Amino acid sequence: MMIFSNIIAIAQRELQGYFASPLAYIVAAVFWFISGLFFVEILIGNQGIIQQIALSERTGGNIGSIDVATEFLSSFLAILGSSSLLIVPILSMGLYAEERKGGTLELLATSPITNWAVALGKLLAVVMLFSFMILPVLIYEAIAFSAAEPSLPLAVPLIAHLGLILLIASLLSWGMFISSLTNSTIVAAILTFGLVLLLWIMEFIANSFSGSIRELLLYLSLIESYGNLVQGIVNISDFILFFSYIFLGIFLTAQSIDSLRLNRK
User: Fold this and answer.
1) Which residue in 201, 176, 199 sits closest to 90, CA to CA?
2) Among the listed residues 72, 83, 197, the one whose alpha carbon sits nearest the alpha carbon of residue 133
């Protein structure tokens, strides 16, 4: 119970810090602007889904049984997932680097609060911040889906957005670990961007191999697991993969801070 209270206290402190900083508002505003642009473009833009269907109908093309809502959800969530290349480095770069730079990391390292509790609290806070950022997106998605015919089952977008949050949480946990290694937010952001990019293209790298190596890399691909959830495909292995990434990121972060504690001793 004490550990849980410590985690919540740290998460609250981190969230207060985010909302007191202009960076969080700038990142959120840019995210909302970009997601809004893609929302409109994918749905009703000149090359959007609705325009493509209308064009096919006018030219007598065979559009088959296209599910506009499902097609839109897959395309839009793919864009939101791609935004992790920029969002994750910015959100995670200061999780520990700022504390190192300000000299407060040593206080955390020598405090009675466990390193696991600190890492969990920080990760919880930044994941909650991202969850707040996607709330407006959910609102205009709901408005669009309300006009869909046939209607989209509620479970489909819920599972898809759960996949988005798990993807971001997995990447943020590793960004947090990288942030714990340096006192430079710029260095942390650059290294995190490189790691996220590597994980993002792992599926393409896997296709360069064959046999067991290819299968292993495909299994470790977060993007493939994310794609499954976006399409409403629920596999226990996908959840195991996401939580494994999250756990390993937290573990490495705790070990990093523990090494700092040992050095201070």
Assistant:
1) 176
2) 83
CA atoms of 181 and 183, how far apart (whole Å): 7
pLDDT at 132 over 60: yes
Q: What pTM value is reported for the model?
A: 0.89
Q: Is the backbone peptide bond immediately before 150 cis, with ω within 30 degrees of 0?
A: yes
DSSP per residue over 221-262, as a string?
-HHHHHHHHHTT---HHHHHHHHHHHHHHHHHHHHHHHHHHH
Evaluate the CA torsion angle 83, 131, 127, 242 in order and state its sign.
Answer: negative
Question: For the segment 204-240, what is each residue's pLDDT rounded down to a tens digit?
Answer: 888 888 888 888 888 888 988 999 999 888 899 999 9
Would you list the domain boundaries of the chain? 2-264
**How many angstroms separate the CA atoms of 48 and 41, rounded?**
6
Indicate the average pLDDT of the chain. Answer: 85
Higher pLDDT pick, 104 / 29: 29
Nearest to 249 by CA among 168, 159, 139, 135: 168
Q: Give the contacts of 56 (CB within 8 A, at least 6 positions apart).
A: 62, 63
Instruction: Look up residue 205 and give its amino acid.
Output: I
